């Protein structure tokens, strides 16, 4: 038998000064590293426009215009989308070092391109056309183009795979060791590999560092979120969940500003990593979750945290307040074999009973859909045209109106109907892009509507899942659902790499269909609004049966 923390919260305060201090100054800032490290790799590995380097023409003292060099040395080829453009990976087989030949080329002026001239792959490397001299990426430093242009995509795929594995492992860590030690383990691993990224001498070492960082994403966000939800009363969970997602959206906006200001990828890596070393000072202020302590029957430690909470909330608890709970636990323990150890829980506990198995399957499918589409749309933001930094910033800004919609609806409509409406709205917007591929304005509007819908679902789902899973397997349940969700982002970079302009609509069709299906599945879940969090597996099975 475990003590229901929801029965204690009315006496100590469901959202008093203690919870406000912890949420605003500890838990919410603790989510920022996830947003930075989930997407800074996109800008570290940005591929600018490029062409073959022609040493005899690109020398500074020759003063040849870029237009002349392209016409004289670069053939026209048909792109995957069926359009003709200058080649990025081939050049004319010409001798550009002979002055007489250059004179002929200059006299020919703009009529230099010819299909009769043999072409060869780039012989002396590539010339990258950055908008400014300060912009450097791993692509430009290690020339990851042409026959190596899959490397950045491979890095994103491996980053996603490492996150999938890490999320699974850290789910067990936070449920077995506790929320507090788990957070600092994530932070230590992430800091070491993120800082080491800036000093990588080769692509292989850079990739290894990114895999190390990916191992902690998104686990490092999940633990502060779970702790915040577990610390407040049922009526304040919506408030806290919205605050968490507002912070995450603002984090993406802040990242857009940072990567715009810091264009060198090594400095960018440090700028998005070093500030988070300050979070190690949380060691002296970050509490262990009282709800988790109670679920483990560690009553003495839980009493210390709860009394501290009551004191800061200016609530008074009688000296023998916890005796009633301890007596109940001891009486329940007398009915058990005294030699029996504290039970341990695993993934199989989520599917042993029919109702828990059904809820786990539905939540996991919806999580897969939400994560895939959210990450997919975020990846596509730089490809909308114009300034990629501004596009990413606007993609974060587009999420902010979401919370004005969610604030009243989650407490009026409930979690289930809000999740359903958000996913179907976003899904229809993604499906509608099929009819407006050539209209940039309409595509942009539909993109924003899709981002609005998926951002709403991204807020509601973790909150609803944390309210559905029992405390004893909450971390495991959320981690398993999160692991399934992270399968989608692993394949999205591959689709983006292989797709042509016409095929790029196919992922939007798939994502739109998944969102509509997920929205309909959400209606089969029980409503969790203002319900007590289930503590044990038995309570979890009964909830919504």
TrEMBL record:
Primary location class: membrane
Organism superkingdom: Eukaryota
Protein name as it appears in the record: Solute carrier family 22 member 7
Source species: Daphnia magna
Keywords from the named record: Membrane, Transmembrane, Transmembrane helix
Membrane-protein topology: Multi-pass membrane protein
GO MF term set: transmembrane transporter activity
InterPro entries, sorted: MFS_dom (IPR020846), MFS_sugar_transport-like (IPR005828), MFS_trans_sf (IPR036259)
Protein's UniProt keywords contain Membrane: yes
CC per GO annotation: membrane
Segments forming domain Major facilitator superfamily (MFS) profile: 102-530
Subcellular location: Membrane
Keyword Transmembrane: yes
Transmembrane segments: 21-39, 150-170, 182-199, 205-228, 240-262, 268-286, 362-383, 389-407, 419-436, 442-464, 476-498, 504-525
